[in-house]
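Entry 14. Two folds queued back to back today. First construct below, sequence then structure tokens.
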Amino acid sequence: MFDSEVQRILDFVARGIGVRVVGAPGSGKSTVVRTVISNLEKTGVDVHFIAGLRTHRALPYSAIKGLGLELRPGRGGVFDIADVLASQLAKAGKHVLVVDDLHLVDNESLAVLEAVRRRSDCPMIATAPNTLVYSRGQLAVLNSGREALLQLDPLHYEQVHTLLAQVLGAPADAETTARILTKSAGNPRLIARIAETASLSELLVMKGRQWHMAADTLWNEHLSGTLEALLAELPPDEFEALHIMAILGTARVDVLQRVVRPDVLESLERREFLSVLDDQHNGTIAAISPPVIADYFRGEKMLRDRHLLRSKIAGLLEAPAQTARPNTSMSDNLPRALSSLRREKGDDDAITARHIHEHNAAKERLRFERWESNKTASNAAALLRVYWGAPVNVTRAARVCAETATTGGDPADLLFITITRAMLAIHRGEGPAAAVALLRSFAEENPQQAEEVENAITFISASHGRLPAQANPPSIDPNAGPSPSSGMTDLVRGLLELYRFQPAAALQSVDGDDEDDAFPQLRPFIRGFALFAAGRIEESLVFALDWRAEAKRKLDQFGVITSSYVAVHGLLYRGHFEEAEYLMSSVFAMGRPGFVVDSLYDAMLRLAGLRHTTTALPPALSIAAQARTEVADVGPLPGIGKGAYQLIAHNSAHPATFDRKAAALVKRQLKSGYVLEAVMTALLCTCLCPGRPVLDLLQKALRGSGITVHEQLLAIAGAVVEGDHQLLGLLLKHYQPDGDTYQVGMLLRGALRRHVIDGDTAAADAMAQASSMFAARFPSANEQLSFNSFRSTPLTEREIEVAILAGHRTNVEIGEHLGISARTVENHISNALRKTGATSRSSLFMLVGNSLPPR
């Protein structure tokens, strides 16, 4: 779980720099330190380990005596002990001081450490809570030498997925992973304990090859000890405050401040037991973090105290809403949107997911009760709209569709109910034919709705099968009278044009306001993705990220998912992988959504898994395994069909075989009418492993759609495929930066790898030179996506580091640079050559390196 963090610490220590590791309780600080110690000792480093203990922090010298120093009788003062420890650190060889839980070390031991650090330049690794207010003694120890700071943030969805597989021995399904992430707020210790105790309590069961929830809750009595330890340091007033908050649930801060002192709330927030965020009314709300703490206080053992506290806080939930803050606006630009997203990465997406869940559950419960008391079409439509974004209660939704009175209902509401019935039929596996039959039956009974029904049928048919070659206008009964439009015609037309890869026509179809839209979130979705398809990546990203921020503020799960899907494509296309993975992780944390956007949820699982396959991560732990497999290979939008993911995840070892399979998939996508998906598949395959069959299909599709923004990329790809290195050099020399700059770099690296795999040394050398020149002219701060899955066995991070240096340095120089022996370097190179099939150090560097000499 912490390989990258461990490696960073080892690199700092090798350069004589100390490291301060900070994080919340349970964030993995001690685990990271233990792994670092193990790695250091394997390389012959003497580690001097000091552990702070909660029960010993009042005992003088208790921490430093844990080193087992040999002291002469009567020489037990600060400087006496410091002399002995300093003499040990001065012995031949490399030494490292490690202090775990610095905040629990007694003052006398801190004094010894301060004296030692003044005499020795030995690097020190120390762990502490990230909210610790350091004492003077602690600061004196930390600030005695060069120091790097390593923050352990809460885990995101993909990391939780990996950790659960390690803890349980097999991966968990999407719903289980999301629930554990939400309950634990990404805390590694809580993730492991929730999974272990839920398995012990048979709340998790194995079905197939994945763990699934056997009940609606994961709370069990075996978790009590873990939570008691987590809360052990809280004073009584803060403990009672958490109890009150567990009763209130997510509440506005102004309500909480009536029963909890502001200083107590501030202390809880500082300790990270309280998460504060904005709500949809421009106010500020607070919730317990991690949310499993609320489950602890709501347990049966707290019943009596709960009754006492309820009497104390009675009536406070009806406090007036806060005054809305003025709405400030900023200029729309990509740096601002990306900066906002990066700041959000430090937030707790599990808390946001929980808040959205609570909001959706309360709204669903209220609307269902309203429908039960009066089963009108308007009440039914209001309830069913919740299920288009929030998780669907299939039994309740089916009951509403069956029992709602249709007499005298608004035609638009009746149509919405029928469309929901149709989508529900698809969700239950009955297929598009059953959905179309329901809609045609409704049209026969309501001829005045014929146009809107035909629009709905076109939408369902085109989205779940095959796109017609040309959109035909729906047949309208001339005797049916005027049709009350719900705004579907333009939206369906725009969506079909998007599928056909006609972004200009799609944008034209959704030009205007959305006042009459039956499905308000569809118009911005078409607009945002059409901008992306047209090559206006920056505009699409800004639009989608701003839309997502607004949807989060309104607790609109439907809007969050649809906007995130659009934004993810733009982020991945520009190489912003960390931002894209965070954004997808925040969506996955919400669990499986309603039946309308669940296909986008699965598409993002595959997109995240696609990056795993191209970076050679173990496919068994890829979150793409959580996506549904009972779907077609081709789909209306990228990622909805599983074909592209399977092609890259399970490709053949030889590029020529990959060409054949990729071309066959793109032809199937084009034949189905899903030109947008075909173009995106062909673009990705061309950049990962450029070949003539796929490039020809890509050029033909782009010409047919009238898209010219990729002309420079196509010309370079043509020169690469033809092996015309003179033309390639001219094209790269005169290349003008455009939206495909990242793709050109990926294309050149893909060609380099292909030539190395094919054993064409001359072509590989020429491509390495071209790639190096392009990278020097257009340096990218983003990681380049590479087709590492051609290798049967992935390289480790250390092997990749050695391979990058192997093209320019000797084994001795590499060993000195990385702090390892020349023999170890030789072993890494040998392993890398075996795994990649490369025949020399030079070809290994070209295959793995970034084509630039390391600085």
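Second construct, same run, same settings:
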Amino acid sequence: MYKKLLLTFVASITSLILVLSSLLYYNYNSSIVSTVKGMNENLLSNISYSSVYMDTISKKFCQSLMLNNAIKAFAYSNDNQDEDFLNILGAIRTLKEFTIPNTYIHSTYVYNRQIDTVIDSSSFYNASNFYDKEIIRLINDAGTVAPLSLNPIPRIIPVPRGSDTRTANVYTYILFDNNDYKGNFDSAIVLNVDAEWLRLTISSLNKLGNEIIVLDDQGDIVSHSSSDMFMRNVSNEGYLREVFTASAQTGTYIDRMNREKHVISYVSSDVLKWKFISLTPYDTAFSAAKKNGIITVIFCLIVLLLGLLFAVLASKKLYRPIGALTKGIIQKLGPDSAPSKNMDEMGYLSTAFTGMIDKTQVLENMKRNTTPVIKNEFLKTVVTGRAHLPTDKLIAKQQELQIDLDFRNRLYLFILKIDFYKDYVDRHSDKDRSLYQYAITNIAREITGERFRNEVVETAHDQFAVLADIGEAPDQLSQLTDIFRGIAGKIQASVLELLNLSLTGTLGFVIESPDRIKSAYDEAFNLSMYRIKTGHSSIISPETLKGMDTGSFIFPVSKEKQLIDSLKLGSGEAAKDHYREIIKAIEHSSYDNILTSVIYLFFSIYNSLNRIVEGSESKFNSISISFFNKVSGFETLEEIERTFFELIDEIIVLKDSAKDRKKNDIVNAAIDHIHATFADKNLSLNSCAESLSLSSVYLGKLFKNATGRSVAEYITMVRMEKIKEYLENRKVPINEILERCGVEKSNYFYTSFKKYFGVSLTEYRLKNVNNDR
């Protein structure tokens, strides 16, 4: 019996240590792979976003130039030499004013085909004598052979004499005034974006120190840490083969480059048709894993020796009572009642079987919990078009994941979007947002399920696509629209009542076959952008577009001039009235025209700023950056108006330097308010702004500039110092201290306390108790 116990302990401990150490090392290695992949793909996604952002503002810049009166005057000049010369001079001056403030722009040309003349920001040239020969060829080829879309063309261009370098690396955009595929155009605008700007942007984002390269769809390098690599073709490089052949948008794999192993991550951009690639040396990424392997082996040997010693001692210890008990039973019941030789082993197997049952139950629970996530990811790939599966495979997945739809029937798609998303993110943690989105999904599915089988797909952090199976529903689109308008309205009301969240609904289209799901989603998604006109809590339908002005769009230039003149005079209210008139003139246009007009209006104000407030360019740069950070988050015309009004208020403040003293008075008043009301649990930036009759954004900026802290950080500092004073008096209970200081007792408070003082609340109080003794 003793030998069996000893052998069992030795075998169990040895096996357990080997298995656990192997799992530990494997999991650690897998964790490093996952971490490297996540970090690299996140970095590349940020770089891709920055590149798409560059592409967007470049296109909007070209379109704003096309709308400029001075540029149009030159672009449509005829053979009248005196008039042409004045138009040329005006256009050159305008190009210079537009180009110089934008550091990402290398150069800008305007080509007039009627007089065969090209201008840049410094001079004009006959097309045959223009220093950039290639661009003339591209314009003429595009006009007579095939049109160029407004996409970046990587090029190495010559620069005029007198520059520090002979050539420059750029991305070229060409915008024709009219190109009907037969060469019938009068003028073209050419924008050369400096490739160095993107390279520096990538360098600033690359905190990991990886080698980042960007390739176009031909395999040419369009960005590299070395400018000499620009436009070099690497499509035949073996280590990049998987990047070009992969169907996935993102991925990570390990391959050899120059005989050295590298971790290669890539992200593809559908907008630019570029691939963003990160190259990390394998030894750099996995050096920690090798070190951990050595430590694991040493640790296992030590634990194994200690385990053997424990086995010997435990076997002796356990055998004494078992032997005594067995001997006593045999003496009382007789020799025939002695246990069989296999009894101990059966006991061990029983214990092991119980453990296996427990583990099986855990695995079943894990599978049950992950199924909804897997289902949502699959439906998301189908809806967004990232996966194109034949009908039979869709049916197989439908049964496997228990999808409550039949893809062979007609489907109807509509979209729900969370309103005020930025405020929603600011108010709630990641965990809380997950719970809210889970609740929205359940509400939408339950209400839609009253009429139709359906699935709700979370296609973005703020967006849900509802697919309803309308197999036996009416064929008339008007009847379906009325039915789903009622369903969407009921979902909106329930979410507002139960979750206090506002939703905007977008009614989509009937899907006759699975291959139409993506196009129906894209059309509904584009339609949902018109929330900017309909406002929050609205229900958008295809009928919304009927009220849109489909005629040629004309921006109200006269109102723009009146707005700028009002700013020059320091009349903020008049400027706001003119802004309202501009919006009223464009609000019935398409979404693209509205957004383009907003950006153009901002550029117009920006370019006129020195005429409005002398010497204010550097200050206005920070305002402009803040404005562009908000552009992508605009949801309604009301939000755009509020942002423009804040912009106008900032400009008016710049006009009167004496208001600096008023700003300090506002900050001091806010500080006094915080010290006087720190015990109020509702104390926040909004409450401070309300007490001072200011906007929260404006007060937040003033406070941050004056104190170096946000209002929330300052409130936390005051409360922590008050808590510190109370803690020094150990007679006051902690709950009463928190109540006096306006703090909720929560895990977040304990985390904040430790972060602020460097020790936990218990450690801090014990330390003070010991000091008192």
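Quick look at the second one. The chain is about 60% helix and 15% strand. The longest strand covers residues 167-176.
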